[in-house]
TrEMBL record:
<feature type="transmembrane region" description="Helical">
    <location>
        <begin position="134"/>
        <end position="156"/>
    </location>
</feature>
<feature type="transmembrane region" description="Helical">
    <location>
        <begin position="382"/>
        <end position="401"/>
    </location>
</feature>
<feature type="transmembrane region" description="Helical">
    <location>
        <begin position="195"/>
        <end position="216"/>
    </location>
</feature>
<keyword id="KW-0813">Transport</keyword>
<feature type="transmembrane region" description="Helical">
    <location>
        <begin position="93"/>
        <end position="114"/>
    </location>
</feature>
<feature type="transmembrane region" description="Helical">
    <location>
        <begin position="16"/>
        <end position="36"/>
    </location>
</feature>
<dbReference type="Pfam" id="PF01554">
    <property type="entry name" value="MatE"/>
</dbReference>
<dbReference type="GO" id="GO:0015297">
    <property type="term" value="F:antiporter activity"/>
</dbReference>
<dbReference type="InterPro" id="IPR044644">
    <property type="entry name" value="DinF-like"/>
</dbReference>
<feature type="transmembrane region" description="Helical">
    <location>
        <begin position="48"/>
        <end position="72"/>
    </location>
</feature>
<feature type="transmembrane region" description="Helical">
    <location>
        <begin position="272"/>
        <end position="298"/>
    </location>
</feature>
<feature type="transmembrane region" description="Helical">
    <location>
        <begin position="237"/>
        <end position="260"/>
    </location>
</feature>
<dbReference type="InterPro" id="IPR048279">
    <property type="entry name" value="MdtK-like"/>
</dbReference>
<comment type="similarity">
    <text>Belongs to the multi antimicrobial extrusion (MATE) (TC 2.A.66.1) family.</text>
</comment>
<dbReference type="GO" id="GO:0005886">
    <property type="term" value="C:plasma membrane"/>
</dbReference>
<dbReference type="InterPro" id="IPR002528">
    <property type="entry name" value="MATE_fam"/>
</dbReference>
<keyword id="KW-0812">Transmembrane</keyword>
Amino acid sequence: MVGVTATADPSTPRRIAQLAIPALVVLAAEPLYLLVDTAVVGHLGRVPLAALAVGGVVLTFAAWFGTVIAYGTTGRSARQFGAGSRASAVSEGVQASWLALALGLVILLAAQALAGPVTRTLAGNPEVARSAAVWLRVAALGVPGLLVATAGNGWMRGIQDTKRPLRYVLGANLLSAVLSPILVYGLRFGLVGSAIANATAQIVSGTLFVRALVAERVPLRPQPAMIRAQLRFGRDLAVRGLAFQACFLSATAVAARFGAASVAAHQVALQLWNFCALALDAVAIAAQSLVGAALGGGRVAEARWLGRRIAAIGLVCGTAFGLVILAGAPVLPRLFSSDPEVHHQAMIAWPWFVGMQPLAGVVFALDGVFIGAGDVGYLRNLTIVAALGGFLPMIWLAYGLRLGLGGVWAGLTLFIVIRLALLLYRLTTERWLVTGTVR
């Protein structure tokens, strides 16, 4: 294809916004629910809040597998959709849903068997570990639904359908946000009530996405060859996700060893960070869909232009988030805990949290560009380099030198800086601009 201009092509900033804004609501629904849940549990005391931090980070590990499936499915579906075959794009979603269901059942069984040892390893406090294990076993009942829903988000993003995921995810999480305070306080279930509300949202959401697949009237039987192809595509994303989780699990483990107040404050900052990350990921979701469709249709110039434009949009959005978080410093931590020591510890992490937002905006945007392009091998390698060469040495140095929560969040910032440098370098090359329906 000859040149593509920003004004002539449908992939204009308006089209990016049409995909990114509904995706923002979908992405924000889950962390918003978790923020509500953190606020509800936080007023039970520092031990329940610390238990939620430990159990929640393990459940986040399971959710990352769903993200791997969703991102891989978006890229593959978008290329098929860009080549003109909606049915083939949806078929990718069918096979991804079978894969998600199988993985979800495996994770559910593993959580029931291993919740105790895992939480004891992470918590460093027997009381926190016991409460976290109970929470995790109940919340894990929703994992199959969670993974099926993420697969559903993947194929719907690939076909540029943003309306149905918006209704499904938002509705399920609003239901759960209402249930959480009722179960925790009204019915006096305490911390377990939080886990029940969490699992309910995931099961409802997964069921709605299954119904959507049935409505597409495509064959629903498993196709092992396509599932194997998705596994190969997702392998690099999975390794990348494992590197992320090694970082976040290490951060929680180190924060826990600085005391209950430190890990409780880390939970507050981490949930806010997750909210910002997923909200900024709305731009990345648009990038996956649009870049994948452009390369699937052979439109190289359009894909190159999208990469640069989306990086700039990510910078603007990340800066805006940083300013909001800076302004909210006196208020936000107190929404989640009335404990003065928890608030003091949160303020130690806050400057790092604020400062990394503009950089993170560009990083997340470019992640979406390269996932849409299928350039997942490079993303795997740069994440491993950033984790092993930056974050993990910093986090354990913080533990050894007793640098506290500031050292933990300095490590997270270093992780972002290294990834930013390597992503910007890749954008200047031609290696990610590969056309066709499958990379």
